[in-house]
């Protein structure tokens, strides 16, 4: 039995892999177990929203991900209604067009830097937790079982999560009402026409149509992503193969030149089932990503939601395993992320209604389409889908515009908290006892502004105040970063800047 692992992650999807990177960055002994013996190269999701791009950027991981991308769109959509991302307050006002498999490939390759293993061909089948840890049972590629013990287990094992099932965690919500399918297809264009591979990416047309949804996105190399959802996809078993006839019928409905189906590389059915785990944590077991929530892929949010769960959870689990977490830190994972997930479930349900060919739904859609021509309305919905408007409840001045919001454009490559304050300020001196958990970069607010900000490792501002408010900062540091290492450094004590500037 291996007892050396601090955090075991079940599932090497985007959620599990980003979490593993966060833990690796913090020096946590983590491991990922993945049921599949190798990467499939298949992609459900095809995009990163601006907040996810910011998340990767603040660790310095965006550039290599962009190198693998296919398109950049200055827009998102709500049920196909365009949202202008150029109006967002972000350093990255784009949706990145990138197959999920390429994001996973980057994240898995990057884990080598930290020595965090991805143990493939190992399926987590059961576990039991006690006061000190979790003993998991894994089924290996040869059919042999083994047990692995870890201090914490994270279920990032997708919508049909074994971890969630073994926990017996309620997963309230509803089953799917609308059936759809996705197929990556090789196409031959009619004579004289291009196969469309070089076409720019467009937002999907989700206008209600009794014949159903059918749209194509070029993935390069003559391969296209086809999304189809019409009468023939309703009431079909989710595991039934997608047929060539279904694909041809949908292709015939796609706008543009007629295209001949050469081959289906991969196809799968999905629905608009909408469910959310009642709690994201139970003792030493946590749920993240699709294991914690499922919903329709409307607007392109699921992968993004999961990666942002991972980013919220990573530094908190690291703090717990490193031994400096304040009481209740881990509980803030559920408290902060459950409402964010609930909001995505609500907006995806609303989007699905707006795609129905029902005259009443069409009337609401027309009204919303009109409202979204107003810049402020468009910006608000855009910020929701982009994930840039998330504000976590934080104690402190509720009217401060940044408290609880993310600090855009801030690089946090070390994964530490960050104090933005003048080096000579009282708060910089007060932070000395938290060196090693927070850093103070040279460039912060203007030296003479008198303002200071404390930013968590996930980029959210957890304290905002005057740079002479040493007591206020100390309270915030203790709340988020635990007790100081040297509690003798108190107000009125020796003035020392935090020595871990970076
Ligand atoms: C058709 C479709 C289109 C989509 N498009 C988008 C989009 O454009 N944008 C977007 O943001 N989202 C989209 N999504 C949603 C997105 O794909 C998911 O939200 C995302 O994959 C969730 O990532 P995850 O890591 O939480 O789970 P998963 O990607 O499901 O990964 C879970 C991993 O766990 C493994 N696993 C499962 N059980 C076990 C076990 N017992 N032991 C070990 N390993 C296990 C699985 O093999 C898998 O590798 C789409 C979804 C669908 C169905």
UniProtKB/TrEMBL annotation:
Cofactor: FAD
InterPro entries, A to Z: FAD-bd, FAD/NAD-bd_sf, RIFMO-like
Domain (FAD-binding): residue spans on this chain: 5-347
Keyword Flavoprotein listed: yes
Pfam name, any one: FAD_binding_3
Keywords: FAD, Flavoprotein
Name listed for the protein in its UniProt record: FAD-dependent oxidoreductase
UniProt organism field: Streptomyces albospinus
